[in-house]
Structure formats: structure tokens, C-alpha cells
Design brief:
By secondary structure, the protein is of the alpha+beta class. The protein contains 7 helices and 6 strands. It has a 3-stranded antiparallel β-sheet. Helix 3 packs across helix 4 and helix 5 runs antiparallel to helix 7. The longest helix has 27 residues. The radius of gyration is 24 Å and the shape is elongated. It binds zinc ion. Zinc ion binds next to loops.
Length: 180
């Protein structure tokens, strides 16, 4: 648990598993990039208890548990319960679930690409018209309004959307696929 370079190794083979992606996923699931990233560092160092994580990271135990349970809810973290024969207390050893994480990341990655593809298709297959205040309509809509903005009562002008198309082409999923 010493402060050293942490290597993110996965016990499941997937081109979607890398440090960047699992941290991004944990951040999305918990809405807390910083804390979830520190907790992941612990989980990828050793099988650890919530108390050990709190100790190493300096994050409050309750908060560590809150984040762990969010990861658990999504299925990307699991625990093993071990009973101390003397005290009868349970200790929870936490572990990252690479297989489940890979599936979630792949799903998100495909969703992002699908969205990008859809908006590109929409821009490429439509003509757009804008009013001076920036309201934007596809050709059919603009025709319905007889090229007068219904919100501003201003004339609608043809808009060249090439730069929008080029912008969309630059969009990428925040998840990175490992090179084969
Ligand atoms: Zn308008």
C-alpha cells in the first residue's frame, strides 16, 4: 500500500479495460472523480478493506463506504466478508469487477458513437435555417413557418452547416479502446 506507481492490471481480457476508462466509469457512476479515483488506486494495489482505504487515502470512512456501495450497486465492485473468529466482527475485502466494468464501458462507448453517428447523419441529411437570434430549424420546419422565426418573428436564412459537421466529426467517446 506504499505510495508508488500503481499498475492497473485486469483479470479479464477486454480492449475496453485500461486505467483511463475505469476511472472515467467510476467517476460517472459516483459523480466524484477524485475520491473514486483514489479508491480505485487502492483496489488495484491489493484486496483491501474499507478501513484500509480510509487510512491510506485520508478519506473519511463513511465517505469511502458511500463510494464503494455506489460502485457495488453498478456491479463494478464486490466484497468478500470474512469473520474474525475471536471478535466475531466482519471484515469486508473489496475487489474491482473487471468483467462487469468492461461490459459497462463497452455499452457507453457504443452509445456515444451511436449518438455521434446520428447527429452527423442529421446534419448531413438536412438543410438548416436560422434567425438572427440563433434559433435553428430544419428545412421542413422552416417551410412550415414560411421562413419566419415563430419565436422572434424574424426572417430565417439558410445556414451552411459544414463547420458543425466538421465539429461533430471531431467528437469521440471519452472512453479509449486499447490497441490490439
Ligand atoms: Zn428566432
Amino acid at each position: 500500500m506504499a505510495k508508488k506507481e500503481i499498475i492497473y492490471e485486469f483479470d479479464y481480457d477486454s480492449k475496453f479495460l485500461n486505467e483511463h476508462n475505469v476511472k472515467r466509469l467510476a467517476s460517472d457512476l459516483t459523480n466524484d472523480a477524485d475520491t473514486s479515483s483514489k479508491i480505485l488506486d487502492c483496489l488495484f494495489t491489493a484486496e483491501v478493506t474499507d478501513e484500509q482505504i480510509a487510512e491510506v487515502t485520508g478519506i473519511k470512512l463513511n465517505f469511502v463506504r458511500k463510494i464503494l456501495y455506489k460502485l457495488f450497486d453498478a456491479g463494478v465492485a464486490n466484497y468478500t466478508r470474512v469473520k474474525d473468529p475471536e471478535t466475531q466482527w466482519f471484515t469486508y475485502y473489496w475487489k474491482f469487477d473487471s468483467r462487469k466494468a468492461a461490459r459497462l464501458i463497452e455499452k457507453e462507448y457504443n452509445k456515444h458513437n451511436e449518438e455521434i453517428k446520428e447527429s452527423l447523419k442529421y446534419e448531413e441529411n438536412n438543410m438548416f435555417f436560422v434567425c438572427p437570434n440563433g434559433c435553428r430549424y430544419a428545412f421542413d420546419e422552416a417551410t412550415d413557418y414560411q421562413f419566419i422565426c415563430p419565436r422572434c418573428d424574424e426572417k430565417l436564412e439558410y445556414e451552411d452547416n459544414e463547420s458543425i459537421i466538421n465539429d461533430i466529426k471531431q467528437h469521440k467517446s471519452p472512453y479509449i479502446v486499447n490497441e490490439e
